[in-house]
Specification:
The protein is an alpha/beta fold. Among the domains are: 13-335, Up-down Bundle (ABC transporter transmembrane region fold); 434-512, P-loop containing nucleotide triphosphate hydrolases (Rossmann fold, 3-Layer(aba) Sandwich). It has 21 helices and 10 strands. The strands form 2 sheets. It has a 6-stranded mixed sheet, sandwiched between helices. The protein is elongated. The chain binds adenosine-5'-triphosphate and magnesium ion. Magnesium ion binds at residues 397-398, 439, 519. Adenosine-5'-triphosphate (ATP) binds at residues 129, 365, 367-368, 373, 391, 393-399, 439.
């Protein structure tokens, strides 16, 4: 921490929270609590009502007894009415207190959840892929649950205990203001032990949430990979992997329990100091005849009454600290600024021919140290033509497609579509102009129809069937138990690899975009289906700019132009005949079977 700011924090908060935690807390209050002050005030009102009616119980009991003892028939009806009234009022207040406090808390947490998810889903592709799915899921669920828990405990206790402390405090001041001041003078002594407990608890809470994120991540990973686990008999590996996480979470939780537990004794010790101070002063005063033992006794009683709520207020800070730790993680997420965003002066992309120009493009993934995925790539894809990208695995082909879709921004050079730099057009108009079938097919656990319709959400059923036919998918779809309404399972698990690819292709066709990017879109198809799909695609891509990545000679040969990539560079460009004649890298790829001839090799990329 740098120099101390001029406001070291106010009141009791300063005792337990360091500056950073206080900043988070203030921000949290301003963002989420303050806008709901009316509802919170209402909770306060109902809680006070609850407290007041609870306090009314002993009175009612006393009067009932009195009237019973006196067998006073005059008073009895009033007593009965009072009993019913107090009970009814109390249960009404109890209900209102529960509902209003739950509503305000749930509302806060739900709003936070919405904000965090909305922020996350519009953030960079790079950001979303940096953290595992499980960790992201955990941030949006477990972290928020921790915040909810913290608000719940602290709000309820805070409202209840503040009221009691205030009441007792007034009594104490009224009895003896000087002794009261002495009692409160000891608070500063608590700063050191408590803030150290607070710091420790906060760090443990953060580590716990992070570990829970890891656990969720591994759990989802392992459960998504059950096919592998079963096939390779990796059950024990999975169990060991997860047990490590479970144990670690157990250890961290115990650490938190111990830190939390230390808060009690620390406050108890504090109370000891206060009482000692009070006794000393009282002794001095009594010895001098300024006050009586009775005064002293009355005050000590009030002090003991105050001790319990003060102690539980102290314990509330532990919930606050744990909530702050979770809030910090949510703010970390909310504070990340996406880099792939529309510029202030971004215009809509206007596609005329759909020519794509790569002008000395370079790019390195943030996570890969040093090595650049793409370097010095200059290429012109003429509008309406098909260009095939070929090359060894890891050559940078998929990266090129990612860059055209602007999933990442180039870090050198530029990419133009019909003369417009991708970074100067709006993302919406760019993505509108592009249909993409990526190397890993993404399908949701929904019907086949819904999965295809993701290409264009307002498409009619006829459009969907036409797209499925164009992707040679219609036949297998109608053969499914419920046809287009068949639900295909998690990630489309109930379809074969080739079927999944054709659904993804139908989706891209349905989008009817002027630019088509196909990353091994037909790699899992058998010869016959591939031939059908290729024929349909040839018709479909006639006037569209198409970038196609393929390992199959039959696909590559159809392209107007072939572009060979190696280690991020473009090494050769030309037609099939040109490149064979040149007898360079392309000819070598053909010979080495990196490009496979389907007529001789029936099934190259078998789906697992
Ligand atoms: N998300 C990523 N983060 C870091 N590095 C990556 C990422 N994706 C790809 N790379 C690296 O970038 C390089 C190019 O990868 P790319 O996916 O473009 O290859 P490719 O030509 O499509 O290969 P393949 O034919 O196997 O699909 C590789 O060295 C790869 O390790
Ligand atoms: Mg690839």
């Amino acid at each position: 921490m740098g120099k101390r700011s001029k406001s070291p924090g106010t009141g009791i908060r300063a005792l337990f929270l360091d500056e950073q935690a206080q900043r988070t807390l203030r921000r949290f209050v301003a963002d989420w609590v303050a806008p709901r002050w009316r509802q919170i005030a209402l909770v306060f009102v109902f809680t006070s009502g609850l407290a007041a009616t609870t306090g009314g119980y002993p009175l009612v009991i006393k009067h009932s007894f009195d009237s019973l003892m006196r067998t006073d028939s005059h008073v009895l009806p009033w007593v009965l009415i009072a009993i019913i009234a107090v009970t009814a009022a109390r249960s009404t207040f109890l209900y209102l207190h529960q509902v209003t406090s739950a509503r305000v808390i749930m509302r806060m947490v739900t709003d936070m959840q919405k904000a965090a998810f909305a922020h996350l889903i519009v953030s960079d592709f790079a950001r979303l892929t940096r953290e595992t799915t499980g960790r992201l899921v955990s941030r949006l669920t477990n972290d928020l649950a921790a915040i909810q828990q913290a608000i719940q405990t602290s709000m309820i206790a805070f409202v209840r205990d503040t009221l009691s402390v205030l009441a007792v405090l007034i009594t104490m001041l009224w009895l003896d203001w000087m002794l009261t001041l002495i009692v409160f003078a000891v608070f500063p002594f608590a700063v050191l032990p408590m803030s150290s407990i607070g710091r420790r608890l906060r760090s443990v809470s953060r580590r716990t949430l992070s570990e829970i994120g890891d656990m969720t991540s591994r759990l989802t990973e392992v459960l998504a990979g059950v096919r592998l686990i079963k096939a390779f008999r990796l059950e024990n590996y999975a169990i060991e992997r997860l047990n490590g996480n479970f144990e670690q979470i157990y250890r961290l939780r115990m650490k938190a329990v111990r830190a939390r537990g230390r808060m009690g004794p620390a406050l108890e010790a504090l109370a000891g100091i206060a009482i000692a101070g009070v006794v000393a002063l009282a002794y001095w005063r009594i010895a001098r005849g300024i006050s009586t033992v009775g005064d002293f006794m009355g005050f000590v009683t009030a002090l003991l009454l105050a001790a319990q709520p003060i102690k539980s207020l102290g314990m509330v800070t532990t919930s606050v600290i744990e909530g702050v730790a979770a809030a910090e993680r949510i703010y970390e997420l909310l504070d990340e600024k996406p880099t792939v965003v529309d510029r202030a002066d971004a215009r809509a992309l206007v596609v005329r021919q759909g020519a794509i120009v790569f002008d000395d493009v370079g790019f390195a993934y943030a996570t890969s140290a040093g090595s650049r995925a793409v370097e010095n790539v200059s290429l012109t894809v003429p509008g309406g033509k098909t260009v095939a990208l070929v090359g060894r695995s890891g050559a940078g082909k998929s990266t090129v497609i990612n860059l055209v879709a602007r999933l990442f921004d180039v870090d050198a050079g530029r990419i133009l579509i019909d003369g417009q730099d991708l970074r100067e057009v709006t993302l919406t108009s760019l993505r509108q102009a592009i249909a993409i079938v990526s190397q890993e097919v993404t399908l949701f656990d929904d019907t086949i129809r819904a999965n295809i319709a993701l290409g264009r959400l307002d498409a009619s059923d006829d459009d969907i069937v036409a797209a499925a036919k164009a992707a040679a998918a219609h036949e297998f779809i109608v053969a499914q138990p419920l046809g287009y309404d068949t639900v295909i399972g998690d990630s489309g698990l109930r379809l074969s690899g080739g079927q999944r690819q054709r659904v993804a292709l139908a989706r891209a066709i349905l989008k009817n975009a002027p630019i088509l990017l196909l990353d091994e879109a037909t790699s899992a198809l058998d010869t016959e289906s591939e031939r059908l799909v290729q024929e349909a695609l040839t018709r479909f891509t006639r006037d569209r700019t198409t970038l196609v990545i393929a390992h199959r000679l039959s696909t590559v040969q159809r392209a107007d132009m072939i572009c060979v990539m190696d280690q991020g560079h473009i090494t050769e460009v030309g037609s099939h005949a040109d490149l064979i004649a040149r007898d360079g890298a392309y000819a070598r790829l053909c010979r080495s079977q990196v490009l496979v001839d389907l007529e001789t090799t029936p099934r190259s990329h078998a789906a697992e």
